[in-house]
Amino acid sequence: MNQIRTLFWQDNAVVMIDQKALPLEERTLVCTRYEDVVAAINDLTVRGAPAIGVAAAMGIALGARQIQAANTEAFQRDFMAICDAFARTRPTARNLFWAIERMKRCFEKTLASDTSITPSDINQALVAEAIGICEEDIAVNRKMGANGRSLIKDGDRILTHCNAGALATAGYGTALGVMRAACEEGKKIHVFVDETRPVLQGARLTAWELMKENIPATLITDNMAGFLMQRGKIDLVITGADRIAANGDTANKIGTYALAVLAKENNIPFYIAAPRSTIDLSLKTGDEIPIEERNSEEVVAFQGARSAPFGMPVYNPAFDVTPHRYITAIITEAGIIRSPFEKNLSGLF
Ligand code: MRU
């Protein structure tokens, strides 16, 4: 099950599934320059917090190979500028900054390891680190799946939002990874997929993944979720996360907060599945999480088809924050974390 490799390093290039083209066309984008990877993150060719982190790590490794510096200081300066270019792409996903920090640490450690180190040695170390981050991500997702599947019972009907699947990671997925793991142990589940306006990650990507693997699923529009919950058609909700503050407040795709409130109102457990690289203990609460605002075009048109009057003002926050009181548990690779989140999340590090 699950052969989807969202992105990988091949022949000194970063190869990624072009998620903008899905589900109508399955094609890949080959990035040979770091600027291509920066653009791919910005325009959502690659998206989802862990996948953005892996893409940035590989993009930084690619960028280091482009540097033509006369000395170590110049090399270091150019390397930091490449890292900064990635840091300016999307502000909400913690995994992006986590991956950049790892690449910087790898650079500094390699540089300090030997006085006769060459740019080629550094480049090799950076490529190895980026590939390592990619492989670790899949392993972490499988662990998260193994930990979280106990929360799913045979016959459960599960609601999910956005895409927290293989496509949002290097492979296997976080929230969808937990569902995959439940299927792998023979449980029968049914997934209700929120279409996830404005970019339709649910309708385009989650639906595509679930159909590819024959996991029974039904697509609904975002505004139908409350009705289904009220009618007793949902047993649990599982979503991914882009950043989790020290107290457990969680940023995820816009619309997640509303689902969590609806779940509480209807006595339905609400779970988040996320790796430790999504947790940001430097932020006390979700109020401090930076929320990305995206282009108004995403709201007024879809793939070129206009759906609102020209000149209409638009507000397009890409994420919202679910206060921890609405979260039943956070599924991580290190175990299932419950309240008190502040104490239990800090125990993971
Ligand atoms: O804007 P996107 O598509 O990058 O947003 C993605 C999400 O909100 C996902 O739910 C989140 O990154 C978790 S993915 C494992």
List the helices and strands and how they pair.
Blueprint: E1 7-10, E2 13-17, E3 28-31, H1 34-42, H2 49-66, H3 72-87, H4 94-113, H5 119-148, E4 157-160, H6 175-184, E5 190-194, H7 201-212, E6 217-220, H8 225-230, E7 236-239, E8 243-245, E9 250-253, H9 256-265, E10 270-273, E11 279-280, H10 297-300, E12 301-302, E13 305-306, E14 319-322, E15 329-332, E16 335-337, H11 341-346
Parallel strand pairs: 4-5, 4-7, 5-6, 7-10, 8-11, 10-15
Antiparallel strand pairs: 1-2, 2-3, 8-9, 9-14, 12-13, 15-16
Helix pairs in contact: 1-2, 2-3, 2-4, 2-5, 3-4, 4-5, 5-6
Bound molecules: 5-S-methyl-1-O-phosphono-5-thio-D-ribulose.
5-S-methyl-1-O-phosphono-5-thio-D-ribulose is lined by residues 47-50, 93, 162, 164, 168-169, 174, 201, 239-242, 252-253, 318.
Question: What does this protein look like?
Answer:
The protein folds into 2 domains: 7-143, Four Helix Bundle (Hemerythrin (Met), subunit A); 148-346, Translation initiation factor eif-2b, domain 2 (Rossmann fold, 3-Layer(aba) Sandwich), CATH 3.40.50.10470. The radius of gyration is 20 Å and the shape is globular. The model has no long low-confidence stretch (mean pLDDT 97). The protein is α/β, with parallel strands linked by helices and 349 residues long. The strands form 4 sheets. Strands 6-5-4-7-10-15-16 form a 7-stranded mixed sheet. The chain has a 4-stranded mixed sheet with strand order 11-8-9-14, with helices on one face. It has a 3-stranded antiparallel sheet with strand order 1-2-3. α1 (34-42) runs antiparallel to α2 (49-66), α3 (72-87) runs antiparallel to α4 and α5 (119-148) crosses α6. β4, α6 (175-184) and β5 form a beta-alpha-beta unit. It has helices at 34-42, 49-66, 72-87, 94-113, 119-148, 175-184, 201-212, 225-230, 256-265, 297-300, 341-346; strands at 7-10, 13-17, 28-31, 157-160, 190-194, 217-220, 236-239, 243-245, 250-253, 270-273, 279-280, 301-302, 305-306, 319-322, 329-332, 335-337. The site of 5-S-methyl-1-O-phosphono-5-thio-D-ribulose has 18 residues, from α2 and β9. 5-S-methyl-1-O-phosphono-5-thio-D-ribulose is lined by residues 47-50, 93, 162, 164, 168-169, 174, 201, 239-242, 252-253, 318.
